Amino acid sequence: METSIKKRKSKTVYLGAIQIGGDAPVVVQSMTCTDTRNVRDTVSQIRMLEEAGCEAVRVAVPDEEAASALKDIRKQISIPLIADIHFNYRLAITAIQNHVEGIRINPGNIKKDKILEIIRFAKTQGTAVRIGINAGSLEKDLFVKYGGPKAPALVESALRNLDHIVSSGFENIKLSLKSSDVATMIEAYRVISKRTDYPLHLGVTEAGTLIPAAIKSSIGMGILLYEGIGDTIRVSVTGDPVSEIDVAYGILRTLKIRKIGPDIISCPTCGRCEIDLLALTQEMERQLKGIKSYLKIALMGCVVNGPGEAAEADVGIAGGRGFGMLFKRGKIIRKVKEGDFVRVLMDEINTMIRDGKEA
Q1: I need a surface site. Which of 56, 141, 200, 233 has the fewest CB within 10 A?
Q2: Can you name the CATH fold of 262-354?
């Protein structure tokens, strides 16, 4: 699977051992929704995110107790830990001292001199810093100047805060310019991508529950990624953050940016469908949960487009009346009873993964 997308050239920064920017792949992030002060619950959720494929995780740090908990959390997880800081610069310093790999600061609610205090500690510890511009907490002077949290306001905020930090000799920086308005977010990232070469973290903030979040994120981030813009991404979902990971990889996989996870091709069904395709697809999705290997799997309900689509897949079924033809990379393997579809497909998939013959 190859992409014709020409990725924007950006500086290389490091979030712990993970490279961001440069020639590195787009990194998938998420954020816990647990109380960070509850170490057990937070670690449990992070481990579920790790299992789903999350590559870096952010946690809220509302007070000193949460900042102190970071040390214990860090010891029990495998992916880089990012502390989300608002208002109190001392929490950022405590987080850095507790060995988080990154911090996210919002310049709209931390004074400039205090930001430099944070940077001084980050420089000593090798901590990455995300300058997180957010339409909901834009600096007041820019809000007034532009008549609201418009794209030019977000860009000016990002550039002036970037200049402020870089002037101190610190460059392990990535930027984000998030908005709940997709058009504003797209415009802001397009402009900032031409004004600086620091890595960009993409996201549509406050995107809602799973379906609205998937739609907004796929449009907003998908357009930018297709234009080569973006080095890390986070799909923001109200609710279980584990659901964010499937959407994020789905976006990257659809654009052929990253070759990871099963790509299920299934028809929408119509009057020609003579198998229970919905049940088959749902069960295959359940069985394939957590698999990282890339495979194109076709689940087709009839003989019109079914054989053609299945022939293009690594493995697939083209259904008929209670039966289906099993295809494997363009070749018909055998006829299979409908009741055996899942077992036969999973046997083939597991064999391909075991033998290292996935796409």
Answers
A1: 141
A2: Sulfite Reductase Hemoprotein; domain 1 (3.30.413)
